Amino acid sequence: MKLLSPAISRLARMRLWRIQNWINHPDVSQRAVLQHLVTSAQYTEFGKKYNFSTLFTVKKFKEHVPIHEYQHLQPYILRMMEGEDNLLWNTPVKWFAKSSGTTSDKSKFIPVSEESLQDNHYQASKDVLTNYYNNFPSSDLLTGKSLVVGGSHQLSQLSDEIQYGDLSAVLMQNSPFWGHWLRTPELSIALLDEWEEKIEKLAVTTAEENVTSLAGVPTWTLLLLKRILEIKGKKTIMEVWPNLELYINGGVSFVPYREQFEKIIGAPINYLEIYNASEGFFAAQEKPDDDGMTLFTEHGIFYEFMPVEEYGKPSPQTVGLNDVDLTRNYALVISTTGGLWRYLVGDTVKFTSLNPYKIKITGRLKHYMNAFGEEVIVDNADRAIAEAAHNTGAIVSDYTAAPVYFSEQSNGAHEWLIEFDTHPQNPEAFIIELDKALKNANSDYEAKRHKDIALRMPIVTILPVGSFSKWLHSKNKVGGQHKVPRLSNDRNILEEILALATLS
């Protein structure tokens, strides 16, 4: 197979000129995308309601169409799941990506049209591959198998024609025939519902394959890798898969997990971050050492960026690419070929570059700590946890944090629940390093910590291994895309996890 590598490399790079075109001219690409979206949907029920046939500019589009959260579009989506067409999008939508937020027991069902599959998810994946081969032309990536630690798939109860599942399952079910040749394991295992059974079968089956790339949420991927090492009696993954060269991660920051991956894999490989959600494939690193992910501007999604301070206002304002800057935290707003219109995704991003446009995920719009005016976001927390772990010889497997409110006896604080893969030799030193790193990352936190005026030292509770997994089980959120919220502005999630951990 390695004899084919040069030919595969040349083939994979054939689209490079097109990629460079939309990277160099994002404003042109975005105008074309919006025009296509509005024109396509002008005779849908939604398009008629908001007079799409008269919307010829971005300004008109923003004036006529309000910003939507999921609950605003849900009545349309439920009718689509019952088989109605021409509601949010002009072609039939038969697939829905099930996205269950960890702060809610209710699932969201994101419409996935044929256009969003082909023009967004699959095309973006091909562009990631093109960039990879452009940077590593001698790669043997496609001479082996790709292992995606994804979710489950099941039929909708509403109609035999309408199907739903985790995004990864929807993508696998609809992928072209050649995609099945490059993937392991077979679909019957990849799409299993029961996660413990799935991990075991994944481990047994894939341990014998020539795996050259991995993709998946870090926590679940690590669980699989550890089980493979147990089965094979090996110390590192490179002893099992000597040709492994790439791990693609997305959904959560990789910063707290990097040392753990490097240790378990046992040799240098490439790590790429992508931003691929149920709502769309938005961005990806071009190179492993890039600071930020290149925004995909030609892939069926029109982007707006809402300064986070606008959230909750009656008429929140957004800006386009020409008006973003490097200092602000933005909530992502999208319009898509799946029928999401000015849809508030819920993620927050910052730009790391304006030429080309590159972003990093900074957290969730509703996942932060600001009980005392400290405005700690997930990006601050991830980096602080990683720095504290590095400086104390620890490896963190998972964490969450929430405020401890003022009392008559003491000032407020942040309480951190942490699972360690490798415990710090000195837990008190870890707390000191965590506090120091948070001060360096966030001036508001530093100000509130000055002389313990509003915040005293962080409180760290070390949880037994498996505590976070137990909480996810209790919420029926096991495997695939599911993860524990990093930060909360109330103590509900933290108290639930703590209660379950004490039962162990």
Please explain how this structure is put together:
This protein is an alpha/beta fold and 504 residues long. Helices cover 37% and strands 22% of the residues. Strand 13 and strand 14 form a beta hairpin. Helix 2 packs across helix 3, helix 14 crosses helix 15 and helix 17 packs across helix 18. The longest helix has 22 residues. The mean pLDDT is 89.
Tags for this model:
alpha/beta; Rossmann fold; eleven-stranded mixed β-sheet; four-stranded mixed β-sheet; 22% strand
Unreliable spans are none
CATH overall fold name of the domain at 116-159 and 168-276 = Rossmann fold
Major sheet, described briefly?
11 strands, mixed
How do the strands line up in the largest sheet? 6-3-7-8-9-10-11-15-14-13-12
Q: Determine the structural class based on helices, strands and strand pairing.
A: alpha/beta
Globally, the shape reads: globular
Strand percentage, roughly? 15-25%
Mean pLDDT: 89
Radius of gyration, in Å, reads: 23 Å
If helices are DSSP runs of H or I spanning 4 or more residues, what is the number of helices? 18
Instruction: Tell me how many strands there are.
Output: 20
Distance between the termini: 49 Å
Helix content: 25-40%
Oligomeric category: single chain
The CATH architecture designation of the domain at 116-159 and 168-276 is 3-Layer(aba) Sandwich
Q: Give the CATH class of the domain at 116-159 and 168-276.
A: Alpha Beta
